[in-house]
Amino acid sequence: MPLIERIVKFSLTHRFQTHVIFWLIVALLFMNRYDMEEYKQFDNIMYRQIYYISVTMLASYFLAYLIIPKLMRSKNYFEVVFFFIAGAYLISACSRAAVIYLLEPLIRTPPFAQESLWQILSDIPKLVTHYFTLSFSAAWVFAFVKLIRDQYVVQQRSLMLEKEKAETELKALRSQLNPHFLFNTLNNIYSLSLMNAPVVSKSIAGLSEILDHVLYRCNTAYVPLISEIKLIENYLALEKLRYDERLRISFDYVTDKSATIAPLILLSFVENAFKHGAGMDAGNPFIDIDLQLKNNRLRFKVTNSIVEEKPATGGNGLGLNNVTRQLDLLYPSRYELNIKMINHTYDVELEINLVDV
Asked: Residue 313: what pLDDT?
């Protein structure tokens, strides 16, 4: 966990202790601000530090919890400025009055002159140049630290909400994709039952392996690539039972290491090839699938024959719509998807950088 995240987490869970630590640091930093001899005795040092921390805390909380929130919410900035000037004047006047009537009688050796309350309130230049500066010296630092912390918390909440939204959307997309895949597979078994009953049991066994992967191994954002390869092999074996020798299917893959990938991404393109290739071509249809993984860069290509020319876009059909959206969510700026049709051949080529850079 980064240091700033540790600090923010501590400040949120231990608010009182965080404020105590901050003001102790301020008190230590401003320990030796006076040159007068009577201010250097230990009890006098304690008196003046209590005074200084008290007025600075008053100014800090006024600025951080009243002025800045009001400034961020209000549309009338003149009102906020007036409120700040009035509050700063009162705090500075109280600070000067505390010095005259509380601090100096405790610290200084009499006799010494004391200003009247009217002199304190009317001496604006001194209030501004000395007591405003004194009272708000640490208030700006306090307000800045609080503002940075609050902005960090807001940013983290936004990121969390965005992540939760993306995860929710992914779950919704997969809940659409899985029934889409199962619907196609059950149609295959139904076709087999009409054509050749003995192979139905074999197709059901293949379907059970596919269901095991879809229902129990696809609940995470990423799954091992090798399991997706096995899923494609099972799917192809199931489809081969449906078609005769007129359909040529090839699946070649080469991987240099183990890797993980979003589940069902690759299978969607294979499904699309069968849906728009094998099922529609009455001639000699073919489906060629090639997968290569090298240096964590995946290249997946599916080529199938077609008869009718259709727009070469990735947005046709429920499956491709969903898989494109999942790629956008899981691999933003890390994938390239090219879909084109050349000479009655439909080519889908996907490249993904599987390493988050």
From this structure: 45
Assign 279 a pLDDT band (cuts: 50, 70, 90): low
SS3 (DSSP) at 249: strand
Cβ–Cβ under 8 Å, residues 356 and 297: no
Rounded to a whole number, what is the distance in angstroms from the first to the last CA of the chain?
Answer: 19
Domain boundaries, the chain: 3-155, 162-353
Please tell me the predicted confidence (pLDDT) of residue 337. 93
Please state whether beta strands 223-224 and 335-342 pair in parallel, antiparallel, or not at all (unpaired).
unpaired
Per residue in 59-114, pLDDT tens? Answer: 999 999 998 888 888 778 888 899 999 999 999 999 999 988 888 888 777 777 78
With a CB cutoff of 8 Å and minimum separation 6, the contacts of 122 are none
The tally of CA atoms less than 13 A away on the side-chain side of residue 159 is: 6
Beta-carbon contacts of residue 108 (< 8 Å; ≥ 6 apart): 38
Number of Cβ atoms within 10 Å of the Cβ of 203: 22
Neighbouring CB atoms inside 10 A of 354's CB total 18
Residues 272 and 331: their CA atoms lie apart, in Å, by 21
Nearest to 206 by CA among 246, 240, 235, 178: 235
Q: What is the token pair recorded at 289?
A: 């699938």
Strand pairing of 286-294 and 248-255?
parallel
Tell me the C-alpha distance between 1 and 43, whole Å.
43
Surface-to-core class of residue 295, CB atoms within 10 Å of its CB (0-12 exposed, 13-18 middle, 19+ buried): exposed
Token duo for residue 144: 């800045």
Q: Is the dihedral of CA 98, 101, 105, 111 positive or negative?
A: positive
Fold that domain 162-353 belongs to in CATH: Heat Shock Protein 90 (3.30.565)
Q: Give 245-278 pLDDT, tens digit per residue.
A: 778 899 999 987 788 998 888 988 888 888 777 6
